[in-house]
Amino acid sequence: MKLKKEKGITLIALVVTIVVLLILAGVSTNILFSDSGLIEKAQNSGLKIRAAQVEEVVANWKQSNFINSSINKQKETADKMLEDLIMAATNEALRKCEEESQAQMSKITGGLSGLGGGLF
Question: What radius of gyration do the chain's Cα atoms show?
Answer without folding.
Answer: 29
